[in-house]
Amino acid sequence: MFDVHRVEREIGGKLLSIETGKIARQADGAVTVQCGETVILAAATSSKAREDIDYFPLSVDYREKLSAAGKFPGGFMKREGRPSQKEILTARTVDRPIRPLFPDEYNDEVQIMISVLSADQENDPDILAMIGASAALSISKIPFMGPLGACRLSIVEGNHVINPTHEERERSTFNLILGGRSDAINMIEVDAKQTPDDTVADAIEEAHKSVKATCELIEELVAKVNPEKIVVEPLNTEDIEAELKDKVWNDFREAYQIVSKGDRSAKLKEIQDAVKEEYLKPEDGSEPKYEAKAFTKALGNVEKNVVRELLLEGKRPDGRGYDDVRPIECEVGLLPRAHGSALFTRGETQALVSVTLGTTRDVQTVDGLLEEYGQSFMLHYNFPPYSVGECRPIRGPGRREIGHGVLAEKALEQVRPSEKDFPYTIKIVSDITESNGSSSQASICGGCLAMLDAGVPLAKPVAGISIGMISDGGRYELLTDILGDEDHFGDMDFKIAGTDEGITAIQLDIKAEGLPFDQMRAAIKKARTARMKILDSMSKAIEKPHELSEYAPRIVKINIDPDSIGKIIGPGGKTIRNIQEETNSTINIEEDGEVTISSVGGDGHMLAKEIIEAMTTPPVVGKIYKNSKVVSVKDFGVFVEICPGVEGLCHISELAEGFVKNVEDICKEGDVIPVKLLLIDDQGRFKLSRKAALADMEKSEE
């Protein structure tokens, strides 16, 4: 019944296997990929596209079924619904490297669906998903110019580890996802703890050896399956291009040397509308000379060739040289109620960034194949249509916005202080208010400035830059700080973020069939030069963290004996509620005895800390309890609660200096007074003194 083909190879010390022929046989190509006890299913299908379509409708969907890890989804609904952020990011990771590897003329609809069938919670299924998508396409009829291999590399204790476990990744200082063909790189994702440029480049080259081995494994499977591929006939537009070149070439050249994006776009639209009107809508009502699809492609090719020629001549749209960074303006503290804010403007790209500081109650709960955890650092990236002068429906963040936000988040998280030193949940929101290329890198720069404005003690300031590339045969030119048009018509978008010490994040997308190692190293070097210029501009706006905003919570942490937790909470939570109401603070207690206390405005958090310490620490003779409460008044003195549940007697003779005739002349029930613990008698009774407390406090003030 089954015509099963299987290949396997040890890569990075782990057995990787790919199998086809048993599951999803009606798909054009389907494989299961296994490493350890993690198994994914990848299926690729295609169908005829609409006649008038002029783009490649590729869609990638990746889903993690929690049953793969023996888990139920949290919450009321027990069926998985919309994709999680991890699923969206993995789908993008699969999509980005394979998208350039299809013929330009191929416009059939292609859908790749990847499901995690088994998860051992050690081997991440995202690398298997990339390999599976490539293998499914390679054994199908779909004209895929692969195979594409993938691997993850971490640096753990100074050593390269291929396809590390989750535990190894937690201990690493550098994490890389690499996608590529046997002879070149197609995609890079990096998060690193200020890793030197050369170390990054060496790691990429080392990882590519495993990518090559994966490609060879897929090729072995293809040889066994021997698929019959669709042959795509190229759409011949040479005659149309020659005619259009004579008509609009010079007009395009002039338009693409207009510095302002708005003026340039208006002029280009005018040229395009005029030539389309002439060729596709003849005035005499006759049939158009050329088919609309062929004409549109030819016009696009002419425009693309104009831009590429200008760039190779050294003529960038805004007049800069290859190595120039656009003018930069930085401003901090412009939003009065935000805990931190910044406006970062680079040319016609602008990010308005705000930072909010929260407590442990504000962490984002993440539930997936791994154990549930709380995310205490997050960056949300928003790209409203007005940023590019457009109108479109607003339907929540798309995949691009989520991907750009996580890239900026990774770049900045590497320099955040430890939660022990700065126990805050940090949320950064970047609103792109203008865009003409590299908006994700503007979010990194603006996010760094806003965190410093919020008083976050960063290890180092971080800046990001995009490096583009234009090539023609053996010649190539690298473009620093690329514009939108340079990204659209160029060959590469190499986003690199870091400090003056090293790299914290990388994302590479390439439209060419691959990036050679020498060009990769040259781009990293050029990015460092530009990054130093940007960091210098940022330091002029803010060099050191500001004081915490008066609107930000103040947080203090203490550790208590877990056996004392019940005492703090009290019956039905009565005690902890009373402490919170009395001190206007918020208290969170973990099972291990860690207590987080926060308050906004005033020093309620410190007052609550004193109360909890007093409750959980045995009373100490000689200690002053400044906020003790009078709970009972007698003729001979007052009974005072020095902490919840702990009372002692302050005799009338210890209330004040001199003779006290009436106790209520000094204090009444409910008053808060300072007392000093003088002694604990044989019966465990506490002798207190207001008189001694006031005297000691007066001396300490002097």
From TrEMBL:
GO molecular function, one term: RNA binding
NCBIfam families per record: polynuc_phos (TIGR03591), PRK11824.1 (NF008805)
Catalytic function, reaction form: RNA(n+1) + phosphate = RNA(n) + a ribonucleoside 5'-diphosphate
Species of provenance: Anaerohalosphaera lusitana
Record-given protein name: Polyribonucleotide nucleotidyltransferase
Main location (coarse class): cytoplasm
EC number: 2.7.7.8
Record localization: Cytoplasm
Function: Involved in mRNA degradation. Catalyzes the phosphorolysis of single-stranded polyribonucleotides processively in the 3'- to 5'-direction.
Binding of Mg(2+), residues: D487, D493
Highest taxon, organism lineage: Bacteria
One GO cellular component term noted in the UniProt record for this chain: cytosol
Cofactor needs: Mg(2+)
Chain ranges of the S1 motif domain: 622-691
One Pfam family per UniProt: KH_1
BP term (GO), one: RNA processing
CDD domains, alphabetized: KH-I_PNPase, RNase_PH_PNPase_1, RNase_PH_PNPase_2, S1_PNPase
UniProt entry keywords in alphabetical sequence: Cytoplasm, Magnesium, Metal-binding, Nucleotidyltransferase, RNA-binding, Transferase
InterPro entries documented for this protein: ExoRNase_PH_dom1 (IPR001247), ExoRNase_PH_dom2 (IPR015847), ExoRNase_PH_dom2_sf (IPR036345), KH_dom (IPR004087), KH_dom_type_1 (IPR004088), KH_dom_type_1_sf (IPR036612), NA-bd_OB-fold (IPR012340), PNPase (IPR012162)
SMART domains tied to this protein: KH, S1
Source species taxonomy: Bacteria, Pseudomonadati, Planctomycetota, Phycisphaerae, Sedimentisphaerales
Main enzyme class: transferase
Family: Belongs to the polyribonucleotide nucleotidyltransferase family.
